[in-house]
């Protein structure tokens, strides 16, 4: 006869073990509290006495006893403990309080994928050939994905699912791109010539809170790989292996940042700046840089919410840092690094463009130098817009005539956009204080007041031209940065689109690294006037993957990549002019 406290299944209970054993309360619906379309996953491991304090999540309302209450019977798995077959990580990788609730009880095991994906990619299992893979000792090798051989056994799960991403190095003399294993090749003694090389990563790490709120996007995933206790070690391992000098992270959950992410990155030699969203969702953007490479000049958070402007009712944010290189540069050298996560809603292109204009205005303020030019600029983030869309084109080309543009076509996220309302002219009200040139109007006036008479007259003439142009073409936006994208977004040989995110609903490119390119940068886009004090040359980048590549490993997240986004990584050379 079991003690009474062992009979209270579904309540707080304590189990005492006379000999060290391992026990896992991991059974599915039949041995746990059931709610419609949900099931609990609350694993606990111990080698001695342990306590399970289980309560339903607060949003399920008053608790009701499960229908199977009655005389308690020992679960079928009592006896010597064995890990369930759907576990594929070691216990030391797993946190004691991890739990996750999914909206669909009929989960697919790894290897399964949404039916639309199976139909689209059946029979296609492309992975890198051995001669294209990067050595595991190389820090530039990605931690990404791959498909296991068909004859591989189940118990080798820790070695499967790994597709390695190549380092693509730009040869500027021949204006060609080479796939190399070592990004330090052909650096031409940059440090000896007063040039400064550094790497930048942009990575949406997938907030656990957002993952659980949008569980329908991850029906293709196995439950264990969605737990934060499993995901964070993978994310940290990838960051450590790629070893970027600057990290721009999106969807960084506040509690995880304070307790785990920031301490871990500080241990690796980074200084971290963070800006949380202004609403109820507890995630935000972080920029972390190696203190061995940069000094912090200023940190400037950007809040896109304005209580007095109805258009700006969303809680997205941005963060802009001004960094000073520590070596081989003149004292006034600086680099402006910006990070943001724009609104997702495909039908609100008006909000997206306004948020972008606010970010560009802050960048113009931070990067502006005393001589009237800008320091080199790098803009990273999840822009929730696809290549070729009006928003993307505005960033790269520096201008956009939005007259007659439907609000749902701004980001290009939907093939058949539902937002048919035409953008208003102007998009944002004058009370925002940002001109159609995406600069602060007050800041522009102050700059004019602080310059000499000769420059002042020239700027006044230029301002008058802008005002006249604005009156003539009121629907035209512009900015004065010469920006290029690190990635070309299509495979050069086949033209197949690269993707930066892949889940049950879509696989597209929405993440970018834009930079102010040097005139002789063969990877850069031509155009724009010379308004920069110094510039950047793209030396190399970590290759992206296609949708087909990612579905060979069951999409994202998976066992080796613990976000629904891929990391972006680029190497730059700062050139002083």
UniProtKB/TrEMBL annotation:
InterPro entries: ANGEL2_N, CCR4/nocturin_mRNA_transcr, Endo/exonu/phosph_ase_sf, Endo/exonuclease/phosphatase. GO terms for molecular function: 3'-5'-RNA exonuclease activity; mRNA 3'-UTR binding. It comes from the Eukaryota. GO terms for biological process: 3'-UTR-mediated mRNA stabilization. Residues 100-156 are annotated as: Disordered. SUPFAM superfamilies: DNase I-like. The gene is ANGEL2. Residues 65-189 form the Protein angel homolog 2 N-terminal domain. It holds the Pfam family Exo_endo_phos. Residues 124-141 have a biased composition (Polar residues). Residues 201-517 form the Endonuclease/exonuclease/phosphatase domain. This is Angel homolog 2.
């Amino acid at each position: 006869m079991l003690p009474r406290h062992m009979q209270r299944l579904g309540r707080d209970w304590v189990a005492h073990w006379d000999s060290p054993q391992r026990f896992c309360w991991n059974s599915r619906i039949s041995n746990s509290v059931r709610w419609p379309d949900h099931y609990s996953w609350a694993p606990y491991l111990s080698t001695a006495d342990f306590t399970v304090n289980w309560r339903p999540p607060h949003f399920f309302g008053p608790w009701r006893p499960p229908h199977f209450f009655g005389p308690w019977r020992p679960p079928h798995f009592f006896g010597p403990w064995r890990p369930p077959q759907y576990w594929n990580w070691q216990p030391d990788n797993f946190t004691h309080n991890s739990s996750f609730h999914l909206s669909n009880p009929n989960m697919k095991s790894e290897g399964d994928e949404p039916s639309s994906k199976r139909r689209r990619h059946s029979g296609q299992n492309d992975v890198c050939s051995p001669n294209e893979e990067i050595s595991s000792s190389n820090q530039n090798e990605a931690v990404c994905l791959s498909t296991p051989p068909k004859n591989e056994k189940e118990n080798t799960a820790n070695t499967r699912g790994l597709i390695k991403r190549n380092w693509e190095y730009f040869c500027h003399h021949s204006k060609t791109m080479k796939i190399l294993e070592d990004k330090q090749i052909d650096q031409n003694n940059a440090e000896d010539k007063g040039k400064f090389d550094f790497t930048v990563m942009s990575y949406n790490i997938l907030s656990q809170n957002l993952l659980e709120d949008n569980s329908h996007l991850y029906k293709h995933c196995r439950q264990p790989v969605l737990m934060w206790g499993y995901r964070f070690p993978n994310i940290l391992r990838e960051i450590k292996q790629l070893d970027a000098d600057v990290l721009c992270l999106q969807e960084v959950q506040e509690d995880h940042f304070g307790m785990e992410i920031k301490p871990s990155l500080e241990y690796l030699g980074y200084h971290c700046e963070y800006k949380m969203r202004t609403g109820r969702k507890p995630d935000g953007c972080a920029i972390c840089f190696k203190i061995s490479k940069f000094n912090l000049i200023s940190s400037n958070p950007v809040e896109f919410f304005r209580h007095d402007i109805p258009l700006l009712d969303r809680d997205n944010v941005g963060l802009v840092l001004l960094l000073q290189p520590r070596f081989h540069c003149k004292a006034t050298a600086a680099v402006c690094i910006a990070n943001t996560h724009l609104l997702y809603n495909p039908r609100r292109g008006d909000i997206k463009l306004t948020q972008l204009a606010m970010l560009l205005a802050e960048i113009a303020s931070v990067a502006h130098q005393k001589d009237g030019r800008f320091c080199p600029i790098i803009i990273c983030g999840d822009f929730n817009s696809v290549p070729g869309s009006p928003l993307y084109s505005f960033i790269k080309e520096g201008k956009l005539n939005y007259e007659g543009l439907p609000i749902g076509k701004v980001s290009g996220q939907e093939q058949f956009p539902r937002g048919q309302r035409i953008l208003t002219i102007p998009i944002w009200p004058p009370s925002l204080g940002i001109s159609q040139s995406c600069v602060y109007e007050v800041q522009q006036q102050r700059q004019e007041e602080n310059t000499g008479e000769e420059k002042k007259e020239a700027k006044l003439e230029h301002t008058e031209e802008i005002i006249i142009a604005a009156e003539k073409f009121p629907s035209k936006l512009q900015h004065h940065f010469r920006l290029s994208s690190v990635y070309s977004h299509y495979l050069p040989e086949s033209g197949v689109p690269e993707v930066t995110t892949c889940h049950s609903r879509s696989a597209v490119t929405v993440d970018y690294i834009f930079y102010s390119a040097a005139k002789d940068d063969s990877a850069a886009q031509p155009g724009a006037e010379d308004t920069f004090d110094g510039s950047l040359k793209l030396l190399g980048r970590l290759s992206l993957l296609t949708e087909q590549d990612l579905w060979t490993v069951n999409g994202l997240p998976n066992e080796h990549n613990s976000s629904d986004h891929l990391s972006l990584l680029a190497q730059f050379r700062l050139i002083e002019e």
